Amino acid sequence: MSLFLQTIICGILLGAMYALIAIGMTLIMGVMKIINLAHGALVMVGMYITYFCFKEWGIDPYLGMFISMPALFLIGCLIQKYLINRLVEVDSILPENQVLLTVGIMLVLTETMRLIFKSDYRSVVTSYSTKTFFLGDISISIPMTFGFLIAMILTWLLHLFLTRTDLGRSIRATAQDRDAAIYMGVNASRITVITFGIGSALAAAGGSLLLPLFYLWPDIGHLFTAKAFIITILGGMGSTMGAILGGLTLGIAESLGATYISMGYKDVVGLIIFLLVLLFLPGGFRSFTRR
Amino acid sequence: MKKCLAILTVLLMVLGVTVIAGCGGGTQQGQEAQDVIKIGVILPLTGTEAMFGTMEKNSMEMAYEELKAAGKTTINGKEIKLIFEDDQSRQDAAKAAAEKLINQDKVVMLSGGYSSANTNVIAGTAQSKGIPFLIVTGSADKITKQGWQWVFRGAAAPSSKYTSALWDLFDKQIKPRNVAIIYENTDFGTSSAEAFRNDCKARGIKIVFDQSYEKGAIDFKPMLANMKKANPDVVFAVSYVMDASLIVKQMRELDFNPRLFVGGAAGYTMPEFLENAGSAAEYIASTTLWVPSVTWKGASDYFNKYKEKYGKEPDYHGAQAYATMYIIADALARAKDFTPAGIQKALKETDMMTIMGPIKFEDWEGYTNQDRPTTYVVQWQKGKLEVVWPEEAASGKLVFPVPKWNER
């Protein structure tokens, strides 16, 4: 029984971190209708900024978040404004070339980081990195719990932002129907810039939270892109709630698979769920609420 | 109309580039063919294994410079030229790199190969094209067990032989009652685990837990909690560097106390392992092929020089690449002619000393052109790697059983 509980708790804690990264992707996907394949690379850049702050100035990764998030917000805005929006405007050879552009951005970001930091594995060791507390005989990692809480708070703030503020409502309007939003006086291209910025900032937050427990190298982005993509499909495009559910589902499924099948097949479990959702629930978890 | 224009422009550009590149390549090849001996080296310089590939490239270049200073890179007026190719840590790219080096650059010999999977792909290509291939690291058993005459493994051991010294230690001192095995599901991990499993069976040691994992995971706790329940005496783990550090850290988080934890080379001896695992690295043992303190001539010089030049400590992977460069130069110096066949013959007759120990390519126990490796068991003690076995090379004494996490 304790093994089962341990597994579930590990899954939930990990899932929340996945969810935070995926929310950024789902937001961008909802508004832009494109898959941002550079998302993992943005997480990676956020992690490097946090790492750099820690190494150079001794800033704790959790505080480093307040540097990496604005920095990534800015990078995200610039990418959207000067790269992606330009492609939206021109008549293109391929209809999907915004997606190809994000692949290009991913490569540029990855190789730039390799140029600066080399391919070495980096990690941040803090006093609390491996601290745990025990509930009965279940071990719970303190940085994981911290990450979980911060992820939940950020998601809640995002939810408030999207539902209570003018800007948030404009974002949702643009996601629902871009043309209609433009007729209503929403400056859609400005909204996409801001959305991409917010998505990138959330990616950076996820990266900063993971840094004390994980490690870092320039190609780490692929891992996050893959996870975020699966979660986005699970949860349904553009849905914050869906992304949380998707993240938790993926986290728990992976943990259960690791305990009761084999850790060698951990990714298989996640991908089977992904396939099942695509086959039987093409709209993701969001389709439950729509019925 | 706009679209047509765009397509036309792109086409023109592509054509233009190929024409220019074609010309350049043509003249270069014509001039160089006479006075250089081209050696292709395939290493992962980007992708997940880039850190190791970079260390190996640096080491090879360092060895090359030393050889050059000694005048050994020019043989009969022909200069050895290394052409590095990146396999991007992917098998398809490794294959493409090997084909490119053989067909386009017309190299007379190949070297490199970091991961076992990629090494096997390169070996297959080299064998079918009849180009000698000297492996730097790739160590799955099967690579030199296929009777491939063109494939040589000198500085690298077959993965099942990494544990020779460890089994000696087990038999003489530890005598484990039962063991747990965890390994990454790559060629190297599977091959190491398979050999360890067979060695256990031969000795009647019970395996209470045996599982593979996907490398690059964030959370190993489900697997470790499961293993803790099996309560093994000794844990044998085959992991790359960062997985290794996460595993030992999370073992401490779960308060899981085996009497000894032994890594199967690869990750557990790296400086990055210590850096990330911190105090959790203490008392973790590992098998290894090389330590800076070995008595082979030049080993500590290499270590110090590398550290000074690149500001980082190398581990056995770098030493393998460094030794390999010396083996290449030695074989070329003895080769009658610089054709693939001539180099193959010279390699086969190799009998030299390197910082990895004596190198000879022999056929034994089903292996072809395989050097007989020397292995060690090391243990992290007070943040330093001490050799604990074999006794004649030992720099420290094995701590066994290791203290429990809460008693440290």
From TrEMBL, chain A:
Signal peptide: none annotated. One of its GO terms (cellular component) is plasma membrane. InterPro entries: ABC_transp_permease, BCAA_transport_permease. GO terms for molecular function: transmembrane transporter activity. The chain crosses the membrane at residues 7-28, 34-54, 61-84, 99-117, 138-162, 193-216, 228-248, 268-285. Keywords: Amino-acid transport, Cell membrane, Membrane, Transmembrane, Transmembrane helix, Transport. This is Amino acid/amide ABC transporter membrane protein 1, HAAT family. The lineage of its organism: Bacteria, Bacillati, Bacillota, Clostridia, Eubacteriales.
Automatic annotation (TrEMBL), chain B:
Residues 1-21 form the signal peptide. Residues 37-383 form the Leucine-binding protein domain. InterPro entries: BCAA_transport, Leu-bd, Peripla_BP_I. Keywords: Signal. Belongs to the leucine-binding protein family. This is Amino acid/amide ABC transporter substrate-binding protein, HAAT family.
